[in-house]
């Protein structure tokens, strides 16, 4: 099991932005970032109502839509920055949860998240009503002493108030591994996919379990929820066959699509979901658009360590891989393409800002196109 970049604070992991663009691929500005070319490029780029937020290995930066650097903050590992309700949430070097607004003012500080401080991650940090935060954490087990058997990893789902480190309404703790939690479109339920082929849903307010099912002889690799709250999962069978499948939260299989053999570590993001519930998914060096389990068309993708797709509200898609940015219409036809210098590579999914411009993070900084 593995973590992956949470795109655009999209808690369904759909990789969708409710905006579109008329950009033609003409660069409007470039903001170089210190150390970007020295192993510290932005790997998360958020488009908020008030500007961009870029997260590098150890630094969080606020950037205006005109390319001006507003503020910078150091940050720690274990959480991909997310934007929600006027603030960006991130983890400090001490492991606490903080929030910062567009002006660089800290609006939440010293928030201690249990079960994630030592060798752990925060998979989900979603502000809820009455100053509560829904959290999904994952904790690596301690390194065993010589001669001792290894202990299992664990994960927790909990609803916390933001006043004290031990102020939580409820908590569920489990042994094993899981994928980051998925929220239903109304944010009323959270769905956890575990390492044993199990899918469990919980009420996000009460913590009550609302459903569970298990698929046998299969491993969840990546997953998202579509617009109807169906689980869209990339999976691997015990004989290393790749599958893309759709399940209801009650476990009914809607459709299944056989993929090529899937090597370990395949897929760099969950399936992306269009407004029409089409599924866009990168397999190897191809982008598939799937409707009801049938491949509608395929688009070539450059071979690269990072390959990302961003779906827009008109069902077009922004594809980035290696040193290229491509805007594809719903039929897979190219609307524009940008090719960077071969020494410069794209390092995060593309986003569209509040002015309709396309922004990308690269190994040298941030670029904007109109």
Structural class: mainly beta
Let me know the largest β-sheet.
5 strands, mixed
CATH architecture: 7 Propeller
Average pLDDT metric = 89
Per DSSP, the total helix count is: 0
Shape: globular
Q: What is the share of helical residues? A: under 10%
Corresponding CATH superfamily: YVTN repeat-like/Quinoprotein amine dehydrogenase
Total strands: the figure is 33
Fill in the CATH topology.
Methylamine Dehydrogenase, Chain H
Count up the domains. Answer: 1
Strand content: over 45%
Terminal Cα span: 38 Å
Going across the major beta sheet, what is the strand order? 1-27-28-29-30
CATH class: Mainly Beta
* Low-confidence runs: none
Q: Radius of gyration over alpha carbons?
A: 20 Å
Write up what this structure looks like.
The protein has 370 residues and is mainly β. It has one domain: Methylamine Dehydrogenase, Chain H, CATH 2.130.10.10. It is 0% helix and 49% strand. The protein contains no helices and 33 strands. The strands form 8 sheets. The chain has a 5-stranded mixed beta sheet with strand order 1-27-28-29-30, with no helix packed on it. Strands 2-33-32-31 form a 4-stranded antiparallel beta sheet, with no helix packed on it. It has a 4-stranded antiparallel beta sheet with strand order 3-4-5-6, with no helix packed on it. The mean pLDDT is 89.
